[in-house]
Amino acid sequence: MAARGTTRRIPEKDSTIACVQCDGLAVMKMVKHCHEESTSNMDVAQGALLGLVVDDCLEITNCFPFPKQQDESMDEDEYQLAMMRRLRRVNVDHFHVGWYQSADVGNFLSLPLLESQYHYQTSIEESVVVIYDTQKSSRGFLSLKAYRLTPQAIEMYKDGEFTPEALLKLKVGYENLFVEVPVTIKNSALTNIMMSELAELIPEEEGSKFLDLGTASVLEGQLRCLMDRVDELNQEAIKFNRYQQLVSRQQQDKHRYLQKRAQENASRVAKDEPPLPEEDITKLFRPHPVPPRLQPMLTAGQINTYSQHISQFCSQSLAKLFITQALQNAKEQNSSP
C-alpha cells in the first residue's frame, strides 16, 4: 500500500488535456437538464459527455442525461450503450469523454464525485467532469467548469489508504486533489450571426442597475454553506485531536508498563528467579484505528472553493450591500426630526 514499499515517482501535473471546448448545443442541453432537475425535485442532474480528443484539446460536441435512480427497471450501462449506438447511426459523435453534474452554490466536492471521476479517468484517460452551477447561472453569470483528478489523487484512491502518513507520502492535499481545465464555448458561424442580430434587438442599459442586489441571495447561500462546512471541519479536527490524545495516553501507559516489567525482572534476577515470560505488547495495547482523512480533505477543498467563489463573484455584492446600507442610514437620519 501507500505507506509501505519503495517510493514511487508520480508526475506532479496532468498533461493529458490542456483545454475543453464545448459546442453551444451541448452547453444548452446541459443547462436545460440541470435547471429542470433543480426546479422540479431539487435532485442533482447528471449526464454523459460525448466528443473527440484533438491533440491536447477535448472537444465536447453532444451530451445526454442519465436515467433517474428511481427507475429501477432501466439499467444505466445498457441505457448509455443504447444511446451511443443510436447517436452513431445518425452520424453524431458517440465517443464517451466524461460526464457532467449540476451543483448548487458551488457545492459539488464529495466522495461520490471523487469515486465516479476516478472510475471514469482510469477507464477513459481523457475524461473530465463538467460542473454547472445552477444558482450562479440563474443570476446571470454562466458557471461551467471542468475538472480532472491529479495523478497524486488517482494514486491515493488506487491505494485506498487515507491515513495522514499515506497522504503525506503521496503529497496529496485539497489544493492538488482536482485540477481545473479551461473551458471555452464554440458556436458555428451561423449561430454567431444570429446572436449578433439578437444582441442588437436588446435595449441598452442606461446605468440603472449599478446597485442591483439580485446576487445577494447567492452570497447569502454561499456564506451559509461556508459556515456549515467550517463546522464540519471543526468536528473532524476534534475527532483527530481526540485520536492523538488517545495514542499519546496509550504510549505513556505502554512505557510505564515496560518500565514496571523491567523492574520486576531485575528484582527476580536478583533473587535468582526466572524472569517473567515475554508477552505480546500489541495484544495488551491494541492500536487505535486511525480516522480516515479523505472526508476532512474534501471538506477543506469545499471550503476553499466557497472562499474563491465569494472573493471572485460576491465581492461586488458586498460592496453594493455596504453602499446601500450607508444610503439607507443617511436617508433615515435625514427623515428623523
Automatic annotation (TrEMBL):
| A Pfam family annotated for this UniProt entry | JAB
| Protein task | Component of the eukaryotic translation initiation factor 3 (eIF-3) complex, which is involved in protein synthesis of a specialized repertoire of mRNAs and, together with other initiation factors, stimulates binding of mRNA and methionyl-tRNAi to the 40S ribosome. The eIF-3 complex specifically targets and initiates translation of a subset of mRNAs involved in cell proliferation.
Ranges where the MPN domain occurs: 20-153
| Annotated compartments | Cytoplasm
Q: How does it assemble?
A: Component of the eukaryotic translation initiation factor 3 (eIF-3) complex. The eIF-3 complex interacts with pix. Interacts with mxt.
Which Gene3D superfamilies does the record associate with it? Cytidine Deaminase, domain 2
Main localization category: cytoplasm
Molecular function via GO: translation initiation factor activity
Q: Which PROSITE patterns match?
A: MPN
Q: Which InterPro entries match?
A: eIF3h (IPR027524), eIF3h_C (IPR045810), JAMM/MPN+_dom (IPR000555), JAMM_MPN+_peptidase_M67A (IPR050242), MPN (IPR037518)
Name the UniProt key words of this record, in alphabetical order: Cytoplasm, Initiation factor, Protein biosynthesis
Q: Highest lineage ranks of the organism? A: Eukaryota, Metazoa, Ecdysozoa, Arthropoda, Hexapoda
Q: What is this protein called?
A: Eukaryotic translation initiation factor 3 subunit H
Domain of life here? Eukaryota
- The answer on whether this UniProt entry bears the keyword Repeat reads no
What family does the database annotate? Belongs to the eIF-3 subunit H family.
Listed CDD domains: MPN_eIF3h
